[in-house]
Specification:
By secondary structure, this protein is α+β, with helices and mostly antiparallel strands. The chain contains 23 helices and 5 strands. It holds the Pfam family HisKA_3.
Length: 589
């Protein structure tokens, strides 16, 4: 374990001469150059808040000036601000500024600032779950006006292949980018690429190689004052130690990363560090700290949501799509004219053949669509038929159970009560011992009937054993890694029977939903007793969802209804591509 340094404040302080140049600038161009040099200094060191602050200030000053090529300068500044927002984890804000940069470059769609902003746009769209992001980056590789932008796009495509679970393609693209960065002296970019190789090695379970490479990035970043990259390397190292179940080392490094990220205002790095720390404390049984970190994570996510400005993002995205449509229309128009002239000059009958071929394709397309629609209707009808059969079987089972209970009440308990009533009404023939015997017999019948209503497995086995066996059965049939932690088992086994039944069904519902929709690789379930309450924490690393857009279905409504009967509370924390955390609290009293 190496030493990890925590800084009280960001240790990178610009030289006073940079500020003097800004203060003594005699005109706008001199002030622009001096401020731009300061921004580039902070960009190299990873001072995110300084990049955003000076970027905004210089953008406002530039927007108010009148000079030639103003749009070019605004496009460059927009991309710089957007990259700072992206680094901080403010994806909607980053999208807004990348779109602004593209809008400023609309008259020069092939210049470097247009491509630079397009690369950023592709990354943000992919992170937000839009598949077109990958296609945008692939187009930027082809259209890049210089080698640096081309290899930046290759590196981002490597990131996408890594996220899609294709390590060989990821390594191929990262290798191309690294060779260029090393040969041209881009030290920070080369180290960032090495950190991705470290993540790939971790995925391949080559732990020692992964640790060596990540420590190399960690040490080199610190010596070169690349502090944001230093913190990212710390996060990766912490996750490797978590994977190896070395929880103490994981806590040490992730705590340092957390302190630094708070001081430097990097919300994305802070969020990842808190997630890792929460996991480490939970694994070591420190549920109090794990719960406190869960609360901190919720505050970070709420802080990110408050910063985002989705309305302006949507407006800019509409403008961007309109711009792309206009450019596409112009390109298609030019291409059609050229094709038409060419065909007229070469051979007019070819047009007739092409028209016939087009008609044939249209006919085939319509036939294919009709076939697909028929198949969909058949599948829908089959599914509805199966659902009706299940509902019918369930109702029939409930009806039979009601008939059985009614029969027991009428024949056994009702008969006994009638006999007791007759004896009580005839005082002359009242026999006390016989009466007591019949009352006792009736009591036993009621007790036996109530026990029959409780599922047998909850009477015969410990509750924690039932939960563990159920999850073990699910694990054998699924590819996801499912981890369950129950503490303390004795207290949980002693909770009331009706709570056991409801908690068991809640766990079933949560696990079914996660396996069905989350596309997760790992699911963590924590069941504990804390502060006279039952705490159920359910977490997956799947695709998540946007809580503002997704409508909750019958499963979640059933879950809320169950919690209402036992006076429980539920908190859902979910974002696209960031997994889902569900926190349930049920009072014991």
């Amino acid at each position: 374990m190496q030493h990890f340094k925590a800084f009280g404040v960001n240790p990178t302080v610009p030289n006073d001469s940079l500020f003097e140049k800004i203060d003594t600038a005699k005109n706008f161009k001199a002030r622009y150059k001096a401020t731009y040099d300061l921004i580039k200094f902070h960009e190299q060191k990873g001072n995110i808040d300084s990049i955003i602050y000076y970027g905004h200030r210089l953008y406002s000053e530039t927007a108010n000036e009148k000079f030639l090529h103003k749009k070019k300068y605004l496009s460059d500044l927009s991309g710089t601000i957007a990259e700072g927002k992206l680094e901080k984890g403010l994806f909607d804000e980053a999208l807004k500024w990348f779109l602004k940069g593209i809008e400023h470059s609309k008259k020069n769609p092939d210049d470097e600032f247009y491509i630079k902003n397009r690369i950023g746009l592709g990354v943000v769209k992919y992170i937000r779950g839009q598949e077109e992001g990958k296609a945008i980056i692939e187009a930027c590789i082809e259209d890049a006006p210089n080698e640096k932008l081309k290899h930046d796009a290759l590196s981002e495509l490597g990131f996408i292949f890594f996220m899609e679970g294709e390590p060989e393609k990821a390594k191929e693209h990262f290798n191309k980018a690294k060779l260029f960065y090393v040969s041209e002296g881009y030290t920070k970019e080369a180290l960032a690429t090495d950190l991705w190789f470290g993540r790939i090695l971790q995925k391949e379970d080559k732990i020692n190689e992964a640790l060596d490479l990540c420590y190399h990035v960690f040490n080199a970043s610190l010596s070169n004052s690349f502090f944001s990259l230093y913190a990212k390397a710390g996060n990766v190292l912490g996750n490797i130690y978590l994977q190896q179940k070395d929880y103490e080392n994981a806590k040490t490094i992730l705590s340092t990363v957390y302190i630094n990220s708070v001081q430097w205002g990097n919300l994305d790095i802070e969020r990842r560090a808190v997630l890792g720390l929460q996991n480490a404390h939970a694994k070591t049984g420190d549920y109090k700290n794990a719960h406190a970190l869960m609360t901190r994570l919720n505050r970070i996510n709420n802080q990110v949501l408050e910063i985002q400005n989705k309305q302006q993002v949507n407006e800019l995205e509409v403008q961007y799509r309109t711009l792309e449509q206009k450019q596409e229309i112009e390109r298609q128009k030019t291409m059609k004219i050229n094709i038409l002239i060419g065909f007229l000059i070469v051979l007019i009958p070819v047009l007739g053949l092409l028209y016939m071929y087009y008609q044939k394709l249209q006919t085939q397309s319509k036939l294919t669509k009709t076939t697909e629609e028929v198949n969909r209707q058949k599948i829908t009808a089959l599914l509805k038929s199966q659902e009706l059969k299940l509902v019918k079987a369930s109702l029939e089972g409930q009806h039979n159970e009601r008939k059985r209970i009614a029969r027991e009440l009428h024949d056994s308990i009702g008969g006994n009560l009638a006999t007791i009533k007759l004896q009580l009404s005839n005082e002359a023939k009242l026999e006390k011992e016989n009466l007591i015997e019949q009352v006792d017999d009736t009591y036993n019948l009621v007790r036996e009937l109530s026990h029959n209503l409780m599922p047998g497995k909850f009477k015969d086995s410990a509750f924690t054993t039932i939960i563990s066996e159920y999850i073990d059965n699910v694990k054998t049939l699924s590819k996801e890694q499912i981890v369950v932690q129950i503490h303390p088992k004795e207290e949980i086994d002693n909770i009331e029977d009706h709570l056991k039944v409801e908690l068991y069904k809640i766990v079933q519902e949560l696990l079914t939903n996660a396996l069905k929709h989350a596309k997760a690789t790992q699911i963590d379930i924590q069941l504990s007793v804390f502060n006279n309450s039952i705490k159920l924490l359910f977490e997956d690393d799947g695709v998540g969802f946007d809580q503002e857009k997704v409508k909750y279905g019958l499963g979640l409504q059933n879950l809320k209804d169950r919690l209402k009967t036992i006076k429980g509370n539920i908190f859902i924390n979910a974002f696209p591509d960031r997994g889902t955390v569900i926190d349930i609290d049920v009072p014991l009293n």
